[in-house]
Write a structure and sequence with these properties.
The N terminus and C terminus are likely disordered. The N and C termini lie far apart (148 Å). The chain has 27 helices and 2 strands. The chain is an all-alpha fold. Helix 2 packs antiparallel against helix 4.
């Protein structure tokens, strides 16, 4: 380098001398070019005037000024204008623009002709000057190439010198690494020899000084090996290094075990730092696993076996075993686990909790107590699985930060322990348990009634559904990891029950001959339909209230949006069950109304009884009324105080009865009107008689009164019952409409031939007269 730099400077000075003429020629050429530009600007008219003149004569959309742009593209220009004007118009305007440009050019030359002619005389010497510069420039080019070649040769020589210097430096550095490593290995072997042949180490006193020195030398050797790993000389030293390292780690393991036994925080901290300095974290975790955790688990399993033998008739439970393990870990390793998790301790590389404690528990318990992980007995599997989760939660208490907790849960041994629990098979067994019990009740011929209500339900099938729902989220059944599956199972239970009721409601009740046409509702369809309505409403209400609260508690650990969506699904399913209750109620009302309407058809016999028979005015209600109201009275007895349902049935019957009365009265009046037109020869002094129509209307009015009395027996107040008031108005005379007045109940008898003076019937007769 010292020999090359002066030569390089000499070549640079020579190059500058050779470039001096070129610099002078360049300045001369610049001066000539500047003079030519000045002459052209002084003799050429301004282009602005020409451009302004052409723009004034062109249409606004032509935009002729774009022709002067450097990036002008004729295809783009035509494409843009084609969207505004037709091509014929564009071609015509361009031709006119061309003519205007030529005309303006000629006009400009004529106006400035003298300047135009004198332009060539002003710049005639430029070509001659340029030709004179060609030869000097070529000479400069040859000299520049020569100088460049000289400079490149010097640069190549300089690069070669620098490369040789770099290689020498690397070789010297490798030699120093080899020497330092060899010296450190010799020192390490000397320290190990002193430790082996010297006095025995007292592991319960302060941390031995010799181990600190050995750890320091090993750390230094590892640094050298990392820098020169590819050197064969260093690779030959590996056997000597490994032998000394193994001796050191054996002694370090003994100190670690003794420090844990005497609970010396200072010795533990120094020992762990020594492990970390020689990159032996795995060896420290292995020492704790084999020398501390393995004996601890053997003791716990021995005590556990004794407990199992004392209770040989009971299935194995892992709860006592986990309790002993937690106690042993806390007493023997608590100081170590707290030390490595202390903030700013510098010992965060160690993971004793996962790689020592949990690893040994997973391997030992998994091998020695494999039957405890089997889902064959679901109840015991549930208990042991929850006991394992509680065991993991106790270990997680040693993780003082969120990052530590994530590392622990993401460890291989944590996942391996949880994989031993086959929760999918557990859910399959629980699903079969629920589905089998539910189908046994829902696949029967008809809904079975209970002798006594249970949990507020009167059907065995509904009790089975409620118990199935309770199982899904009961503490002895539910697992947090299977929350989605148990939620789906509960929804399937509700959907299955709803589908079962809907299918049953689609089957017709019974034939007109009274022979049973279907096995689902049985011989007493009203009773079973009422039970179905009651249970559907009770089930929907229980799900919306108590069951949702239970599910909400079990899903408390889930995110709020997931929990909210899950509860909404259950709420919608319960509401759909309530909708089926309304359909079942409509079926019940229709069935009772049909029975009542069948008897009410006997009302047509009232017309035949009083039409042209000369019978006296009626005084008692018809006998068919009791038969027509019997289904309502019977239903009110089984309704158990469900007044709303009884009123719904009564309203349907009253509406049917009102329609029949209106039709009958309208028919009777039309017939009476026709008969009157045929009997126009009646004498003027004839005694006024009560017409057949009045007798029929009075009989219907008496029947409606009897219906009101029967409704009272059924628990319905006819005075405030809108459907009955409407029925009353359909049968009552004009002055009695709107106000329901019922006389005391009388036992229906055969109507007498004459009316008794002073009776309620006499008053009714006077009203109609």
């Amino acid at each position: 380098k010292q020999a090359t730099v002066p030569t390089f400077r000499v070549h640079l000075r020579r190059a500058r001398a050779r470039l001096a003429p070129f610099a002078r020629l360049s300045r001369a050429f610049g001066s000539i070019r500047s003079d030519a530009r000045t002459a052209m600007e002084s003799t050429t008219p301004s282009l602005d005037v020409v451009e302004r003149r052409m723009l004034e004569q062109s249409p606004a959309w032509l935009k002729a000024d774009v022709f002067w742009d450097e990036d002008y593209d004729v295809d783009v220009y035509i494409r843009d204008l084609k969207a505004i004007v037709p091509l014929e118009t564009l071609r015509h305007e361009l031709q006119e623009h061309k003519q205007r440009v030529e005309t303006n050019l000629v006009q400009t030359i004529n106006e400035e002709y003298n300047d135009f002619v004198g332009l060539s005389s002003e710049v005639m010497d430029v070509e001659e000057a340029v030709s004179k510069m060609d030869e000097p420039l070529e000479d400069v080019e040859r000299k520049m190439k020569s100088v460049r070649a000289d400079i490149m040769a010097v640069m190549d020589n300089l690069q070669a010198c620098l490369a040789r210097r770099e290689e020498n430096f690397r070789a010297r550095e490798r030699l120093e690494i080899i020497q330092d490593t060899t010296h450190a290995v010799s020192k390490l072997e000397k320290l190990v020899h002193e430790m082996e042949n010297g006095p025995a180490l007292n592991y319960e006193d302060a941390f031995p000084r010799v181990l600190e020195r050995i750890a320091s030398e090993l750390s230094k050797i590892q640094f050298y090996l990392a820098k020169g790993d590819s050197l064969p000389s260093l690779q030959n030293l590996n056997p000597r290094i490994q032998k000394a390292r193994e001796v050191f780690l054996v002694e370090l393991g003994k100190i670690l075990e003794a420090s844990l036994r005497i609970k010396s925080t200072a010795n533990l901290q120094q020992c762990l730092r020594s492990y970390a300095s020689v990159n032996a974290v795995d060896q420290a975790e292995a020492v704790v696993k084999e020398r501390i955790m393995k004996p601890l688990l053997e003791e716990c399993l021995e005590a556990y076996d004794t407990l199992i033998q004392a209770k040989a008739h009971e299935p194995e439970q892992l709860e006592p075993l986990y309790t002993d393990i937690i106690y042993g870990v806390s007493s023997r390793l608590g100081i170590l686990l707290r030390l490595v998790n202390t903030p700013h301790s510098g010992l965060h590389a160690f993971s004793f909790l996962a790689n020592s404690v949990l690893a040994q528990v997973e391997s030992t318990v998994g091998e020695r107590r494999a039957s405890s992980f089997s889902p064959g007995i679901p109840s015991m599997f549930h208990k042991n699985y929850l006991a394992t989760l509680r065991f993991l939660e106790e270990l997680e208490k040693y993780c003082i930060s969120k990052k530590k907790l994530e590392v622990f849960r993401g460890s291989e041994h944590y996942r391996s322990l949880l994989k031993r629990w086959n929760t999918s098979v557990y859910f399959t067994l629980r699903f079969q348990d629920v589905a089998t019990g539910l189908e046994r009740h829902l696949s029967g011929a008809r809904p079975a009634l209970l002798a006594e209500p249970k949990d507020g339900f009167v059907l065995e099938s509904t009790v089975a559904v409620w118990e199935s729902l309770g199982k899904c989220f009961s503490p002895d059944f539910y697992l947090q990891d299977l929350a989605d599956k148990f939620l789906k199972l509960s929804l399937q239970v509700l959907a299955r029950y709803r589908h079962w009721v809907e299918q049953g409601l689609q089957v017709p009740a019974s034939s007109s001959e009274g022979v049973e046409a279907e096995p689902w509702l049985g011989a007493d369809p009203e009773k079973r339909l009422h039970a179905i309505v009651h249970d559907l409403r009770a089930l929907s209400s229980n799900v919306l209230e108590s069951y949702l609260n239970t599910v909400s508690v079990q899903l408390s650990d889930l995110p709020d949006d997931v929990k909210r969506s899950s509860l909404d699904l259950l709420r919608n399913a319960a509401l759909k069950v309530g909708d089926v209750a309304e359909a079942a109620q409509d079926r019940l009302i229709g069935l009772i109304s049909e029975k009542c309407a069948t008897v009410l058809k006997q009302m047509r016999g009232v017309t035949a009884a009083y039409r042209m028979t000369n019978k006296p005015m009626p005084t008692r209600p018809s006998t068919y009324v009791n038969g027509a109201m019997a289904p309502i009275l019977s239903f009110s007895g089984m309704a158990n105080g469900d007044s709303a349902l009884v009123e719904a049935v009564a309203a349907s019957v009253c509406n049917v009865y009102k329609t029949m009365i209106k039709e009958l009265i309208e028919t009777v009046k039309k017939t009476e009107s026709s008969l009157k037109r045929l009997k126009k020869q009646a004498s003027s002094d004839a005694v006024a008689k009560v017409t057949d129509t009045e007798k029929i209307c009075l009989q219907l009015f008496l029947d409606v009164k009897e219906v009101g009395r029967q409704l009272k027996h059924a628990g319905v107040d006819p005075n405030n019952f809108e459907a009955y008031v409407s029925l009353w108005d359909a049968a009552a005379p004009e002055d009695a409409k709107g106000v329901v007045q019922l006389s005391p109940e009388e036992t229906p008898q055969k109507p007498p031939e004459t009316l008794e003076s002073g009776s309620q019937e006499t008053e009714d007769l006077a009203t109609f007269s």
